[in-house]
Amino acid sequence: MTIDPGLSKTSLLSHDERLDRLAEIAIRVGLQLRAGQELVLTAPVDALPLVRRITEHAYKAGASLVTTLYSDDETTLARFRHAPDESFDRASGWLYDGMAAAFRSGAARLAVIGEDPSLLSGQDSQKVARANRARSAAYKPALELIVGFDINWSIVSYATPAWAKAVFPDDPAPVALARLWDAIFAASRVDGPDPVAAWKQHNAALNARTSLLNDKRFSALHFQGPGTDLTVGLADDHWWEGGASTAKNGIVCNANIPTEEVFTTPHRLRVDGTVRSTKPLSYQGTLIEDIAVRFEGGRIVESSARTGADVLAKVLATDEGARRLGEVALVPHSSPISHSGILFYNTLFDENAASHIALGQAYTKCIRDGDKLTPPQLTEKGANTSLIHIDWMIGSDQINVDGIRGDGGREPLMRGGEWA
Ligand code: ZN
Ligand code: ZN
Fold it and tell me: CATH 3.40.1830.10 residue ranges in the chain?
């Protein structure tokens, strides 16, 4: 893959310089990789130019060993086209056990993403669901260490031709790719005079917002807008997070590059009403559009979607927790990613363009002193458990959000999608 750096209209830096800055941000901001730490890296083969730079920055930061596992859209498709039926209940458990072992012995985790958002759209949804389920179950030991912030971890993105085509279908391939790169670099704050300082400032702004919400101790949030009238009860001792956070290994990391959200844990039993998605959800290669669900006592009791309804139904059937919420997040409609007007078909970006909720597993970090509690104690506070964690967007410029206090009083938090 090549890209003409001259196509960028937003930066004086060359493509290679921007790529190098993105790699530096991944290591110095995303992970704050510590000298002597191992790094487990996953990436699509397309992202090799970025992986090489990340690896270089990791060793310069003192990494003891960088191990990269590559994925490839074409080989993923080959499985769906040619593998025997029994293949779809299998996953590389040995690999995920190995990743979990690496994390337990102190390794950091970095994911580079850039997959084709509709790679599996044409495949048998039964097989897709079975493969996802098998993978989720096998990945659980490693995922728990990530979700629980036992280690410093981060996700950055790489513009692949297939992803660029999905985002800018009407542009010639090189133009689409250059536009997606511009959007990724801008959202990842690589273009300014000092990207690391820019991230420090951005983290401070997000932390100010979470401090304010943590002081309020709301018992619920109320979302209202077209097709949406949803009360999201917040877990007892819920804790708002946003921007950088401190992992249990003591390292401050930015788990998502980019990030614009502040988020916390809903109460698994106290979500009621109806809600409609405001952006398509790309879930492991399937596009799920116009989701509408109704909650009763925290549980989804009715669901529909205009496309991908069968995949959504199977996702909800993953386990008991898949029908309940594990996250609620607030993002102003004017966030830079939303402002770009681009639909990325990628949760890392789209979730930072709109307020959202996530089905499934809750983050223990989003319960006060959650890392000192046992799983039953976390459940008691209202934190949900599931094999899945899937964010979908419910915010827009037409959504109002109120904070509801313990005494039933209300305070406006967002009006027309902006902080009130
Ligand atoms: Zn989120
Ligand atoms: Zn999430």
Answer: 7-187
How many angstroms does the Cα of residue 62 sit away from the middle of ligand 2?
Answer: 30
Which of these, 181, 259, 165, lies nearest to 13 by C-alpha position?
181
Q: What is the mean pLDDT of residues 333-343?
A: 86
Are the C-beta atoms of 66 and 53 separated by less than 8 Å?
no
Any alpha helices (H) in 118-264, and if so which ranges? 125-147, 161-167, 173-187, 195-216
Q: What is the pTM of this model?
A: 0.86
Of 96, 116, 114, whose CA–CA distance to 104 is shortest?
96
Strands (E), 321-415: 325-330, 356-360, 389-393, 400-404, 410-415
Q: What is the pLDDT of residue 9?
A: 55
> Rounded to the nearest whole angstrom, what is the distance from the C-alpha of residue 414 to the centroid of ligand 1?
17
CATH number assigned to the domain covering 7-187: 3.40.1830.10
pLDDT, tens only, 163-196: 999 999 999 999 999 999 999 999 999 999 999 9
